[in-house]
Amino acid sequence: MFKNYLKIAWRNFKKGKLYSFINLTGLTIGMTSFILIALFVQYELSYDRQHENVDDIYRVISQQPGNEYKGTDLFSGTPLPLGTAMVRDFPEVEAKTTIDLRSNLLSKGEEVFSEKGIFADNGFFEVFTIKQISGEGKSALEEPLNVLLTESLAKKFFGDESPLDRTITFERKTEFTIKGVIADPPKNQHFSYSYIASISEAPYYSHNKNAWGNNVAVTYVKLASGTDSKELEDKLLVYQKNSEEEYAKYGLEPPIYKLQPLKDIHLYSKVNFELEPNGDMKYVYLYSLIAFVILLLASINYMNLTTVRSAQRSKEIGMTKVLGASRRQLLFQFLGESFLFTIISFLLALFLAALLLPEFGQLLNKNIPLDLVGNRWLLLGMFSMAIVVASLSGLYPSVFLSGVSPAKAFKGHFLKNTGGNAWLRNGLVVAQFTAAIVLAIGSLIIYQQLQFTQDKNLGYDKDHMVHVPYSTPEIAENENVIRNELLKNPMINKVSISTQIPLEFDNQGPISNWEGNTTKQQLGVYRTFVDYNFIDVLGMEIVEGRAFSEDFAIDEKEGYIINEAAARSLGWKTSVGKAFDEGKVIGVVKDFHIQKFNLAIEPLYMRIRPEWAKNYGEVIMSISTDNYEETKKYITSVMNEAAPLVPFDVKFLDDTYAQLYNSEIRLGNTFNIFTILALFIASMGMFGLVSHNVVQRTKEIGIRKVLGSSTVAIVSLVTKDFLILVVVALLAACPIAYFFMNDWLLQFTYRIDMGWTAFVVAGVLAILVALVTISVQAIKAANTNPVKSLRTE
């Protein structure tokens, strides 16, 4: 019996090529989208799960009441003595590790690379699961000047030779002995590294190893199984007294230490100074919703097209019933057809997903693996998805068609465009286009907001600006020579050598010493150190007073330039000449953005760089982009004259700025793709329904042609009802899209006004897609010879 069901299903598959193609294409696209997003979701949820004791590993973070920075008072940094004290004082803390992640110049002979690695204590191997390739592991970190290399970095420097007991130079001055090789950390870990060195060699270690007032490292602990982390958090309040005196100097309360589960960091953490950018659980939910919507659209297509096509199979249904087939047998026959379509689509979807996964991963900036053999949960999920799709897609048509009486089947009048069945079919079409229009509106609003971030005046010039980060003292020692040599190139217009570019102002602290502050109120202020040319090079506007100038001796030691936000916060109507912190205000700069648009412009000040701040920073240049590659080589060569072999990276300032919005850009690109897919699936479904409608009305169209109806009139007749469905879908989609996109826009302090443009454009786009889809069949029907139309019965 089952064999016969498959034969009948296969014959119908070949007989109705158009409907089969539409159903197969829709289901394949839907399942491919679902599989790709399922792989992404599983990858995001897998972060840090490779560690054996992941459920018992926590990161200790510090909450600093009154010290809000970038929208939160939570910080990843903790004092160096904290982990040791926790192991000593609380038996439930079985192990701890303190790490510092930073980039260093590593060299061997003439080979120099900038590599990101960590300085850690030997507890790193007790807390985390690290695969050892060769040599020592934990024991290597017990001694200073030892280093462990990852397998990839070892090959980068030494090829296939053993690196053990050989040396590698840090920052071109300190030699470390390679004591072991470890496996590269997996990509789905919330921090990465290419080497591990002893924490005792970290630049700040000797001054801070016993200091409770400086949060210079990140602490992780492994708790005994079954430990209540909330109870332990309460016990950590005992450490507040250790830093109380230091924090009181700045008018702040001592920090409160909290425990953050390791497995929650990637998707849920919102603390300052993360080791690397994290993901966001809301985007996981959003992508999951998109996957289900696309899959549902494809299933709706199958339900609708299978049901309407049954009119062309009416005699088959009637004859099968007359010959004694029970309703149960017909039910299984139609469900069998659904399963056949689904299985074929599923196999095609697996092939397409494997083919498209690298590009999809690149779109999301993720290295997503496709490990079907060793991933039983993924396989089970995909198989369940196929079963659910086959059941949902085939259940309604199967129940409906198996219940048709033989008399109605032979007459072919069981499927009219009126009544409950028509309402259901029309409702499903409306649902399809509603989803597609919501995605289209979302895509347009995301695009508008991203354009707003790019086009809005930031308060400084970012076009035709390049910057070169450096962290070598030779640049400071040769600063004037470098500046003069760079300006000899006619493509380089202006040069500033300063501590930071505006996008990286990350130093904030409280001050209380300003004129008029009789109550010693605290004000959190961002601060940076610049040179005399910084404001001119970046094209900033001075709204009161003047910029820094070498003509005024006061500027170097006592001069402050504040922004308008600082002046407002200080309550000053005029600022120049007033006492501020350790000097006086010489100028007020027009507010400019130093953060993403989801954060407001906050008070800041600038000072001339002291000597201690010159060993790191940015060389900022205004250039002509003509012959850029040659200019780039010239910049690198000038800097390498001062610091040979150092790999300098010349970057465009607008590219650096755009990177702030990488997650939003990826979201917009993803929305664009799935909007196109949703419209494509919906239009294919409508194409099938219009085709069926034309077949049903063949005789009517022929009569109308004989009676003198024009092609335009007939096209309008066929088109009208379907366009009404699209308009209904638009009306339904607008409030849904407004609700979700308004919520998304609220994360931005500076945002677009969500006007009518996106809604109108999305509506017009949906109507055009529907109109083109309908017109193809309608025009074909209108141009058919009426004689042939009247012979159809």
Features:
17% strand; 7-stranded mixed sheet; 793 residues; single chain; alpha+beta
Describe the structure.
The chain has 793 residues and is of the alpha+beta class. The protein is 50% helix and 17% strand. The strands form three sheets. Strands 14, 15, 16, 17, 18, 19 and 20 form a seven-stranded mixed β-sheet that branches. The longest helix is centred in the middle third of the chain and has 38 residues, at 327-364.
Précis, in short:
This protein is an alpha+beta fold and 793 residues long. The protein is built from 27 helices and 22 strands. The strands form three sheets. Strands 14, 15, 16, 17, 18, 19 and 20 form a seven-stranded mixed beta sheet that branches.
- Could you report the average pLDDT, rounded to the nearest whole number? 85
Question: What percent of residues adopt helix (DSSP H or I)?
Answer: 40-55%
Q: From the helix content, strand content and strand pairing, which structural class follows?
A: alpha+beta
| Main beta-sheet annotation | 7 strands, mixed
Total beta strand runs: 22
Report the principal-axis shape.
Answer: globular
Tally of separate helices: 27
Alpha-carbon Rg, integer: 34 Å
Q: Uncertain runs with pLDDT below 50, 5 residues or more? A: none
Distance between the termini: 34 Å
State which percent range the strand residues make up: 15-25%
